[in-house]
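REQUEST FORM: STRUCTURE PREDICTION
Request ID: SP-0412
Submitted by: Lab K.M.
Chain count: 1
Length (residues): 63
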Amino acid sequence: MATSDRHFKSIILTATQPGIIEIVFYCLMILMVVFQICIAFMSLAGFTDPANVLELPVVVVRP
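STATUS: Completed
RESULT:
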Protein backbone atom coordinates (compact mmCIF):
# COMPACT_ATOMS: atom_id res chain seq x y z
CA MET A 1 0.00 0.00 0.00
CA ALA A 2 2.83 2.42 0.80
CA THR A 3 4.37 2.07 -2.64
CA SER A 4 1.04 2.71 -4.39
CA ASP A 5 0.44 5.81 -2.23
CA ARG A 6 3.91 7.08 -3.06
CA HIS A 7 3.30 6.43 -6.76
CA PHE A 8 -0.04 8.27 -6.57
CA LYS A 9 1.61 11.29 -4.91
CA SER A 10 4.29 11.37 -7.60
CA ILE A 11 1.55 11.38 -10.25
CA ILE A 12 -0.13 14.33 -8.50
CA LEU A 13 3.19 16.19 -8.27
CA THR A 14 3.96 15.67 -11.96
CA ALA A 15 0.43 16.69 -12.93
CA THR A 16 0.68 20.03 -11.11
CA GLN A 17 3.97 20.98 -12.75
CA PRO A 18 4.00 23.18 -15.91
CA GLY A 19 4.58 20.09 -18.06
CA ILE A 20 0.85 19.30 -17.85
CA ILE A 21 0.21 22.28 -20.14
CA GLU A 22 2.34 20.67 -22.85
CA ILE A 23 0.54 17.34 -22.38
CA VAL A 24 -2.86 19.04 -22.79
CA PHE A 25 -1.53 20.91 -25.84
CA TYR A 26 -0.38 17.67 -27.48
CA CYS A 27 -3.73 16.02 -26.69
CA LEU A 28 -5.55 18.93 -28.35
CA MET A 29 -3.32 18.61 -31.42
CA ILE A 30 -4.08 14.87 -31.63
CA LEU A 31 -7.81 15.59 -31.30
CA MET A 32 -7.60 18.14 -34.13
CA VAL A 33 -5.87 15.58 -36.37
CA VAL A 34 -8.52 12.96 -35.56
CA PHE A 35 -11.25 15.53 -36.26
CA GLN A 36 -9.72 16.38 -39.65
CA ILE A 37 -9.54 12.67 -40.50
CA CYS A 38 -13.23 12.30 -39.56
CA ILE A 39 -14.11 15.25 -41.82
CA ALA A 40 -12.14 13.64 -44.65
CA PHE A 41 -14.00 10.34 -44.25
CA MET A 42 -17.35 12.16 -44.11
CA SER A 43 -16.53 14.06 -47.30
CA LEU A 44 -15.69 10.72 -48.93
CA ALA A 45 -19.03 9.34 -47.70
CA GLY A 46 -20.89 12.17 -49.44
CA PHE A 47 -21.20 14.89 -46.76
CA THR A 48 -19.40 17.48 -48.87
CA ASP A 49 -21.54 20.47 -47.81
CA PRO A 50 -19.22 22.94 -46.00
CA ALA A 51 -22.11 24.14 -43.82
CA ASN A 52 -22.56 20.66 -42.36
CA VAL A 53 -18.83 20.36 -41.66
CA LEU A 54 -18.74 23.79 -40.02
CA GLU A 55 -21.74 23.00 -37.81
CA LEU A 56 -20.12 19.84 -36.42
CA PRO A 57 -17.72 21.54 -33.96
CA VAL A 58 -20.58 23.68 -32.60
CA VAL A 59 -22.56 20.53 -31.85
CA VAL A 60 -19.53 18.94 -30.19
CA VAL A 61 -18.56 21.99 -28.12
CA ARG A 62 -22.10 23.03 -27.16
CA PRO A 63 -24.26 19.95 -26.69
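NOTES: Residues 7 and 52 are 46 Å apart (CA to CA).
Reviewed by: T.R.
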